[in-house]
UniProtKB/TrEMBL annotation:
Domain of life of the organism encoding this protein: Eukaryota
Keyword Ribonucleoprotein: no
InterPro entries reported for this sequence: Jacalin-like_lectin_dom, Jacalin-like_lectin_dom_sf
Alphabetically ordered keywords of this record: Lectin
Parts forming coiled coils: none
Gene3D superfamilies: Jacalin-like lectin domain
Lineage, uppermost ranks: Eukaryota, Viridiplantae, Streptophyta, Embryophyta, Tracheophyta
Name of the protein in question: Jacalin-type lectin domain-containing protein
Family membership noted in the UniProt record: Belongs to the jacalin lectin family.
TM annotation in the entry: none
Organism per entry: Chenopodium quinoa
GO molecular function, one term: carbohydrate binding
Domain spans labelled Jacalin-type lectin: 4-156
């Protein structure tokens, strides 16, 4: 038996306006993060079961750009970071983000300097559990400049 577990979204309380759904046998090949004082955007290079790739980017293109290239047997197990209110826009934002995988448990990152962020708090999803569950959806909210929220859904084996 399987159940979908939702974790988040963290950051803005406004409804999500983006998502990435991983179909069966699809995978995330690459994660792209633009960041500076905070996280400007997150993007994904997705590979479907036929080997076709699609790129998606959510948010702005400011700041530095880092790419995480996942190995063929590597997958995201959880996300963590900090969120708060950005002093330059007065919006809720993702101040920093770390991507944890089965091959990098400590996580890639953090991305974002958490600078000029007020009322910040940390967030972390539980580990997806590997064989017991996988991330099937990543979602959140963005505007033209910043990543405002992020969350995940796990497909848990009961």
């Amino acid at each position: 038996m399987q159940a979908i577990e939702k974790h988040g979204s963290f950051g803005s309380n406004s409804p999500p306006n983006w998502n990435v759904i991983l179909e069966e046998r699809a995978r995330i090949k690459e994660i792209i993060i633009h960041y500076g004082f905070i996280v400007d955007s997150i993007g994904f290079l997705l590979e479907d079961s036929n080997g076709r790739t699609t790129a998606k980017l959510f948010g702005g293109r400011g700041g530095a750009c880092s790419k995480i290239t996942l190995k063929p047997d590597e997958y995201i197990t959880r996300i963590s970071g900090r969120c708060g209110i950005y002093a330059h826009s007065y919006d809720h934002v993702i101040a920093s983000l770390r991507i944890h995988t089965n091959l990098c448990e400590g996580g890639y990152g953090p991305y974002g300097l958490e600078k000029d962020v007020r009322h910040s708090c940390s967030f972390s999803t539980p580990d997806s559990g590997g064989d017991d569950g996988t991330i099937v959806k990543i979602y959140g909210r963005h505007d033209v400049n910043y990543l405002q929220s992020i969350g995940v859904c796990f497909n848990k084996v009961m």
